Amino acid sequence: MTPLAERYRERLPLTEATPVVTLGEGSTPLLRAQRLGERAGCELWLKWEGANPTGSFKDRGMTVAVSKALEEGARAVVCASTGNTAASAAAYAARAGLPCLILQPAGAVALGKVAQARALGARILAVRGGFDDALVAARELAARGTHVLVNSLNPYRLEGQKTAAFELLEELGGPPDVLALPYGGGGNTCAYATGFAEAGRGTPRLLAGEAAVRAETLATAIRIPEPVHRADAEAAVVDSGGAVVPLTDVEIVAAWLDLAREEGVFCEPSSAAGLAAVLKEPPRGERVVCVVTGHGLKDPEAVERHADTPVEVDPDADAIAEAAA
Hints:
globular; Rossmann fold; alpha/beta; 325 residues; 4-stranded parallel beta sheet; 10 strands; 6-stranded mixed beta sheet; 14 helices; 43% helix
C-alpha cells in the first residue's frame, strides 16, 4: 500500500528532504450502511477510520507531523491527550526513533489507549486536572524548544488529516451531500473542510456531533471542555450550511450499539457521535458519510458498562439451547 504521504505528496507540505515516517495509514474502508440508512431515510456510508494502524484517524496527521519534526531536527515530541493522539504519537515517534512524552488528564483516559502508549515506550505523565490543563503544560514545554508539539495545534497534523476528504471524493466520485463526524477539539472538522475546499469539487454540509455536557461525557475522546479549534470548526460548519448537534450520552451510546449490532462496526463510543447526529436530525433522501473515528478496542470498559454480559452454562446442548433462546 502506498503511504498516505506519498499518495498525496503534491498536496502536502513535504519536500524531497522529508523522511516519511509511515505505518501504512490512510486508504481506509468506505462501507455502505444499508440498515441504518433505511432507518434514517438516506444513502448512508461509513468512513471507517478505526482501520488506521493505531486504530484512529489521528494517524493521518501524525505521519506528516512526525515526518516534518524529524526533518526539522526534533529531539523529542510531546502531546496532551485523552488517548488517541497519545497512541498515535507514541507509535510514530517510535517509528522515527524519537522519545515521546504524553501528558494525559489523570483518570480520564480509556484503558485501551493507555495500553497502546505504554507498550510503545512513551513516557506517560498523568496531569492533575483536565485535558485543557494538560494541553497548556504541553504547549509551555514545547515553547522551551526541547520537544515538538504534535497535538492538532501543529499545522502539519491537519494537513495530513485533510487527505480523508480526498479519499472520499475518489471513492464516491464527488462529495457527499452531508458529512457527519464527532466534534471534540474541532481539528478534524477543520481538516475535512480544508480538504474539500482544496479539491474544489464542492463541500458537503457538515454535521458535528458534540457531547451536550463536554466535561462529563462518557465519550472520553471528545471530553474536551474548550475546543482549541472551536472558532474555525464552527465557522466551517456554518459556511457549509450544516450544524453542531449536541448529544446526550444516551444518544451516543445508542448509536454506538447500532453501529456494532446492525452494521458490524465496533468503534469506541465517541466515534459514533457523527451517526448519533444523523439519527437525531436525519438528512432524508441524501447521500451521507459518517466518519467513524476510532476502534472499539480503544475503550473496552464501555463494553463492560453497556453491552450484554456472557452467560455461563454447562457443556450440554439442551442447556445451551435453553440459554440461547
